[in-house]
Amino acid sequence: MVKVLRVLLCLVLPFLAVLIKDGPSMKVLWAFLLQLCGHVPGVIYGIYQVVKD
Predict the structure, then answer these.
(1) Residues spanned by the domain of 8
(2) Largest CA distance in the chain
(3) Which of 15, 16, 38, 44 has its CA 20 to 30 A from that of 3?
C-alpha cells in the first residue's frame, strides 16, 4: 500500500517521493533536475527509484 502511494506521489512530485523513500541523497537531486528538464523524465526516474528494491 505504501509503495502505491509513493508511485502516485511520483506522478506529481517525483523528487519528494524519492526523498521519502531514500532520504537526502544524490538520487533526490537527480530526480529534481530531471523534473526541471521536463516532467516526464522526472516521473520515470522517480517511479524507477520507488519500485526498485
Answers:
(1) 2-51
(2) 30
(3) 38
